[in-house]
Amino acid sequence: MFQRLIIPLDGSRLSEAVLPTATYLAQKLRASVALVHVIERNAPTQVHGDLHLSQPAEAEAYLQKVRRDWFPAEIPVEIHVHTTAIADVAKSIVDHALEFESDLVMMCTHGRSGLRKLLFGSIALQVAASKVPVLLVQPEENRAAPVPSGKPFMVPLDGTEIREQALPIAAALAQACGASLRLLMVVPTLGTLSGPATTSRILLPATTTEMLALASEDARKYVESLMARLSAQGITVNAEIRRGDAVELIASEAQIQGVDLIVLGTSALAGLDAFWSGSIAPKVSNRTHLPLLLVPVRESR
Question: How far apart are CA 296 and CA 127, in angstroms?
Fold first, then answer.
């Protein structure tokens, strides 16, 4: 699963909020760690109230201190400072993940503004193409991100094999962390359909309502088959099928169930019947402070 973690840090206390989670996972997974700082072209003198690291020597000293303060000796930690000033920090992080052959990028969404666009802007396609999962943590101001505590990991599904590709990673990570899985299948209602499906909602409301009711029954059978398969692998799993808006229900159910992590399969193409069209990841990110594990998936052709 995840054996090489890469952690981009900009020197601010907020970017360091990912470190408790990173240390925890490195120990649980027995993974190596790469701490990376990218020198930014025309960087501001401060970032989130802290001195911005613009000189290679000070960035090197900073990463060395992070290694000493946060990672036990048994965790292999490599540090790297990209000394050539870069304008596109987000792209540089993706490039470094590939260079270090990392299989998980871990970062705080409250880092430099460019970092937040790593997945939620044009860089999303590059991340998906690189096939490198990204774990985003969203701490409150001046507070560290939560560390997994044995609560369930949530996996939202849309009934397609594309989203289902995130399940093996979610299951393996849950087992390593001593957590269970909670599957959430959301079927839209007539009022929450969007995209091309809006036309059928307007022109054929009765037919569309009947089709959605059938989709709910299909969803139940689909989820039951997944639960049986995961249970056979020794994984503790339960599931919920809900009707309504996917983003709202993912955020609210995660809060109600008290999950530690939301695992989302992400892709550049639309999902089922335009209900998941585009990426729901940025919308979920704006609705919850829970960590998000975004798993790039392969598209069926």
Answer: 7
